[in-house]
Amino acid sequence: MTALINKQKTGITPMNRNKIIMPLLLKKVQTFILPMAGICCFLLLWSLTANSIETSLGKFPGPSAVATQMVNLVNEHNTERDKEKAFYIRQDERNEARMAKDPSYQPKVRMYTGKETFLDQIVTSLITVLSGFLVAAIIAIPLGIAIGLSKNLNRAINPIIQVFKPVSPLAWLPLVTMVVSAVYVSPDPMFAKSFVNSLITVTLCSLWPMVINTSFGVVSMNQDWVNVSKVLSLPKLVHIQKIVLPASVPAIFTGMRMSLGIAWMVLIAAEMLAQNPGLGKFVWDEFQNGSSQSLSRIMTAVIVIGLIGYMLDRTMLQLQRMLSWDKSSAQL
User: Fold this and answer.
1) Strand 54-55 to strand 58-59: parallel, antiparallel, or no bridges (unpaired)?
2) Is 28 in the same domain as 140?
3) Which residue has the higher pLDDT, 18 or 197?
4) Same structural domain, 224 and 321
5) What is the average per-residue pLDDT within 23-48?
6) What confidence category does residue 307 fall into, taking pLDDT thresholds of 50, 70 and 90?
7) If you count Cβ atoms within 10 Å of the first and of the last residue's Cβ in the chain, which end, N or C, has fewer?
8) Does 21 lie in the same domain as 126?
9) What phi, psi does 55 have (nearest 5°)?
10) Is the pLDDT of residue 7 over 50?
11) In terms of residue numbers, what domain contains 221?
12) What CATH number corresponds to the domain at position 125?
């Protein structure tokens, strides 16, 4: 009797408790259990399919082979770092011994020239893609705002955008390589030509989604906000800062997410074609190697490329949620 009175006082009955708990459980299922079930089904299907495919280099790699290669690649990276440390220790010891005999000796410091490991190539690809993406954003966002604010500029530039937007990165790469080789001539370059080639190719191919989405966001902003700006007689720069940019942020981020995904795909293709350092080169080198482990190492790189692409997209989505006033635009 006392327990019933307490429940009535608090207003929490078994029915009310179920109404609270069931939506929470449903949300947990949708958030965690369903994705995990999908991943498990994919791994099972992958494993069954891989066992039934026989190639010239052996069976197609399944999840267990990829997991084994991931461990091997990490171990190779650690071994290479140990070699690098040992190289610098030996170099310092030689220089110290030489200076002890001859105080006027100028010690020579040489850089370690060991091969890039899989993890090193991941870092190289990430630096390249983010650099190209940032350059594209610096160009595309102001250009998109200008196009959105000026109908005449839109009419002038839109045909150019429509012509170059569908051009494949494989078509740009030879032209970029030739131009960089002719123009970027220096006895002591700040950046390697391979990095500049990849950066420019990524920039060219990721410009267009940002330009188009930014201009669309500017054109489609609420007309009432524009009218308020006119009533207040805001200067052009203040109008852009206070009205245009906040209104077009959701569209800008949509274009940036699309461009970052395109940039990542373009970079891998460019690295494979031009043999620039990075994950693309790793895949091509393993394909050319043709060893018994090549397929599993290539499949490991494919999985890593996909995971990095996913994390880049999620990172951009979180940034959009932080900066955008329209939270509903950052749900997918």
Assistant:
1) antiparallel
2) no
3) 197
4) yes
5) 79
6) very high
7) N
8) no
9) -115, 180
10) no
11) 116-330
12) 1.10.3720.10
